[in-house]
Each structure stands twice: as C-alpha cells, then as structure tokens.
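Before the break, one more example. Copy the sequence into your notebook; we will annotate it together after we see the structure.
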Amino acid sequence: MTEEAQENFEFYDSIEIVETHLTRKLATLRQKLKQKAKQEKRFRFYSLYGHICHPDTLLNAWKQVKRNKGSSGVDRIRIEDIEKREGGVESFLIEIEQSLVDRSYKPDPVRRVYMKKVNGKLRPLGIPTVRDRVVQTAVLLILEPIFEADFKDCSFGFRPRRSAHDALKAIQNHLKEGYCTVYDADLKGYFDSIPHDKLMACVQMRVVDRSVLKLLRMWLKAPVSERPEGGGKPTVKRNKEGTPQGGVISPLLANIYLHWFDKVFHFANGPANWAKAKLVRYADDFVVLARYIGPNLEQFIEDKIESWLGLEINREKTRIYNARSRGETLDFLGYSFRFDQDLHGRPFRYWNLFPSSKSMQRERQCLKEMTGPRYCFKPLCKLIKEINDQLHGWTNYYRLGYPRKAYRTINRYVRQRLTRHAKRRSQRGYRPPKGKSFYSHLSDLGLCYL
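Here is what the structure looks like once it is written out:
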C-alpha cells in the first residue's frame, strides 16, 4: 500500500470514542439512533441539534477530549489551563452550551502544523482549539452511530470496535483464499481535496437538521492559521475544499465520503459481484484484491474515484500486480505481505506478514533521535525506561504475523545505540561489570528486549 498509510494511522489527531466511559443516558441514545438508522435505511434525521447542545453530551465530549489529550490551538489554551481557570470545566462547558443554544458559536481558525514523513517531506495537520474539539466531539457522538449503521464491512479506519489489525487480517484471509491480484491504490491529497458540496450532499442523505449542517460547513470552511517558518505574524487563509487532517470530525467525514465508493463497489452490478473482487479500506488507503484484474475492473475503480467522486489517483504510486509473484510484497498500514518459501525446507510456501521496510526505517530513526548526542546528559537507566515505553508501543502494533526477524533487528540496533550512548557519557570509556557482556548488562539495567 502507500508509504503514508502507517503515518496516517499515527498522526491523525482523531477522538477515539470509548463506549465504556459514556454515561448510560448518552449510550442509550446512541444505541437508539443506530437502531433507527439500521431499520430505516432511507430515514433522514431532522432533530439532532438539541442532543448536541445537551449538557450530558458536552460533558461526555469533554471527557473524551481530555482522555485523548492533544495540543492547543491558535488561542494556545491547553486542557490544563481550562481546569485551572476560575469556574473550571463547569463554566467552560456552560459557555459552550450557551453559544450553541443562542446560535452564536463560531469556530476559531485551525492552527497549521507540519509532521515530518519518513521520506523527509512534511504532512500538514490542522489543530482546532480545545473548545472546537469539544463541540466537534459532541457532534461526533451524535452522528457516528447514524452513519455506522450504513458503513460497509470492508471499511476499517477510525470506526468503533475496528482496528488496523482487523483490516490486515481481512487482507490475509483474502490472499489465502486465492485473491492475489492486487490493485494497489494511492489517492493524492485525499483529506485536502474532498469537494465540500459533494461531501455535504453525502451527509444530507442521512442528516437534514439545518443547525447541524451549518456546524459542519463552518468547520469545513474554517480559516487556517499558519506561522511563517522564520517567525512573524501568522497568515490566515480560508479552506475551499478538503477537511483538515487533525480535526476530530475529519475521519468521520472522510469515511462518509468514501463510503459511497464502498457502496457502488458492492452493488448488484458492481465488481464485488461480476469480478468477485474484494475491497479493504482503511480511511483513504485501500486495496482491491481479485483472482484477475482486467481493464473493466481497473476502469470502474478509476471512473468512480476520479469522475464520480472528484478525487485524484496518484498514477505514479498506484499499480496492479500479482502478490504471489516471487519478490513481490503488498504493503499496507506499515506491514508487508509476501508469499515466502517455507523456512524449514518443506515443499510449500506461506503468506508471511511482517513490519515493512519503511516501518523499520521509521522506528530506527525514532530510536536514533532518542539516543542522539542532544540527549547525552540522560542517565542510562532513565533512557532505558523511555526506550522500553517506545518499544512496548511499537511491538503492541507490530505483533501480528511473523515479526521475530524484525524484533531481532530492532534489539540489535537498540543495543548498539545504548552502547554508544554509554560510551559518550563516560570520559574514560564505559565498560560493563567484569564478566558481563553489554547484552546482559543492559538487561540488568532494565532493557526489555523484544
């Protein structure tokens, strides 16, 4: 898949709705909305704004925002600042509720920041203020169950009780079933290129509450504040298309728009039927797998994505290939699928699943920065604790398939970096205790090898 898939997974500043932390009243409301949407596929919800303004919804939205942390927006007000101010969170939520009830709420500009990608390029992210994140989360709490009732099983990105691992397992199952010809797609600047009019038309297939639609339009057109690289006064420009990466509501809107590609793909006259093709999508990253991909299937995908949805396929990164061919790999969400020979000499091949080369490169770069010269002041034990936390998070994600070779590579790299760090801190040359190797010494100091 694209080299950006795993970076998307790491960098989206979306809000994960934790159902177990919702109040019973709100959880019941969400369940009723989803049930109504499932039972009546053509029903349009027209009275939702009151639920968004309700104090219970706003309080739950605040808890979700606080749990997911995140940076401050253009006003530089942090979550901790709101808790410490006079009146605390209660007065903050009352102000939001009042602005929504009297229709005086207007979003602040989105703060533009850049995240460095593995290839050295920069990815733009938009960070709303804490106040806007709370309101967006309140809208998300009410709209999500409605659209969840419509979303297809082939969609996995930023959905409750679905994960990147589920998408990877779906691809693995399709490959094992023989669907090995892959349309490996790459959408160019998806989040920045969604047409606002078409997106709002998709939302209005389910929601016709004018107040809710007005909120969504304001967020889509919210100005972006960007500070020049050399400092100075920030420049502000208004969005004409796209939805900012980093916004709480953005992943849901992105899924709503591409849901219509999922839908036509599975129509009676769609390639899921006449080509027996399989679609696996995680937000804007998707692959189509089939036993054979001919010109008709290729044309269908490109017509629907470009002519119908108004998006752009990056032809340079999009390709069609047979994943069973020797040496080919299917990269998706930081993992690689490869049809490998059995390591024990037995006469069969198997689908190997392991961290991709770009994921390994990204992790090595992260560890290199953590152990670089600028942190030579850190005691070895403290640095080992920080590295353990980093490795724990990495292995928690890269635990599928057969990652042992990747684990050994990372272990060796960590050992080398920590050895260099220890020697850099010592003027006389650092040595482990007598009779101990660096491997066992670092283990004694608490390093958790993978």
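Residues 404-425 form the longest helix (22 residues). The chain is about 45% helix and 10% strand. Try to locate both features in your own notes.
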